[in-house]
Amino acid sequence: MATASSTKGGDLLDRLRAAGVVRLGIAGEIPFGFIDKNGELTGEAPELAKVIFKRLGVDRVQPVPTEFGSLIPGLNSQQFDVVAAGMYVNPERCEQVIFSDPDYQMLDSFIVRKGNPKGLRSYEDIVEKKAKFATGTGYAEIQYAVEAGYKESEILIVPDQVAGLNAVEAGRVDVFAGTALTVREVVKKSAKAEATEPFKPIVGGKPHVDGGAFAFRPTETGLRDAFNVELHKLKKSGELFRILKPFGFTKAEMTDLTAKELCGG
């Protein structure tokens, strides 16, 4: 039985089809995966999951909200079937789960005061100009700044991009670093701050691009492969961009990166 079905996604996909529902681990993070004010599940990853799983013969998705740090442990302890949270693919996570190919790529961007008075366009600029720097709790941007030579103990850590915008507007810091997408969205209503042009941080001496994807248990290669087949069809047809666009994604966030490249393989 398993061998006959493994080409189409294997045992788990068969079970999901029989149940008619797939459980998605989400972390309540806008725009990646969240419950909206009407109590409905939405976000770029759940909306994409709805389309792909329907094509795989699973009609319903059910959200299982958790903390971001609990997504991988929750997946591996079978609390849900797949992580649908726009999770960045990196070598450390690749040792614990397997990823689909990324559905988006992400560059970094800064929130600075209007006119960018200090001319901050990279982490190296922040170090060189001794700018006061903030970023969010647990953000990858902490490491990017440290890599450029910024002292970790001097970074102001704030809860999220809204708090980052407030810190820049109030003059407590010169710059807040986040993903191009979250920064672009949060400054829209600001009269005092703007977003810099997106850029690639330097990691290990090379320009680095992050990519977000769906995570599966390491044993579920069949389901991951079946998911990838449908994902690539959506990329090719342009449907993927149409699904992600309402969440603030632009053509600059579309990508041909593979999970293998981002896992360091």
Automatic annotation (TrEMBL):
Cross-referenced InterPro entries: Ectoine_EhuB, Solute-binding_3/MltF_N
Superkingdom as given in the UniProt entry: Bacteria
Keywords assigned by UniProt, alphabetized: Signal
One GO molecular-function entry: ectoine binding
Protein name: Polar amino acid transport system substrate-binding protein
Any one biological process term the GO annotation gives: ectoine transmembrane transport
Residues that span the membrane, as ranges: none
Record-annotated Solute-binding protein family 3/N-terminal domain positions: 21-251
Record-linked CDD domains: PBP2_Ehub_like
Family annotation (Gene3D superfamilies): Periplasmic binding protein-like II
